[in-house]
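debug: dumping io for the single-chain case to check the tokenizer round-trip. Nothing else runs in this session.
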Amino acid sequence: ILPTPAIGAVGLLEDWEKSTTIGFKGAGEEIWEIGASEPIRHLGQSLWLREIKGHTEGPAPTVWLEDELATGRFVRKAIADGLLTAVHDISDGGLLVALAEMALAGNVGAKLHAPYIDQPQAPILFGENQGRYLVTVKDGRALTEAMRIAGVPGSPVGVTGGDTIEDDWPDFQTFSIPLATLRAAHEGFFPALMDGEL
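debug: decoded output
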């Protein structure tokens, strides 16, 4: 929330070969959302609300520090244990923006499933609830068991593959966006800004 300052940090990995990146690694991997036990997705003070609706209002999402710490530690351990193939935090722009960044980084598309069928589409896709991660796994059963032991919530939200980001939610307005279109918008923003077009 502006004007909150940004804080940079540097960490030291004991074994860089056990690190992971945000990019999808290939087709057919499960996409999971981990963290944030609150089922309601908050749009207050969100990027979606500002850019799409032109408003900067509403309460920001609640921050549950103990839950965030537990989720962060779980994700770090899951990476070290080799359970996760890609990891990205969900922050500005919500789930769909994080998913697009992962897809562009790996040049692999994705298909989303409906994790919360009783909510409107915008909060699910663009809500900015704190303490959440998108991850990919080859074996969802192993991740499910690890989350059960750690007491960390999570649910599958899609699968990697193809050259688009799309959904298969029959009760929602469906979408299908080619990665090429996303890449052109993503990589063309700063040149357009510098040329005074924006």
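debug: round-trip ok. The CA atoms of residues 89 and 156 lie 15 Å apart.
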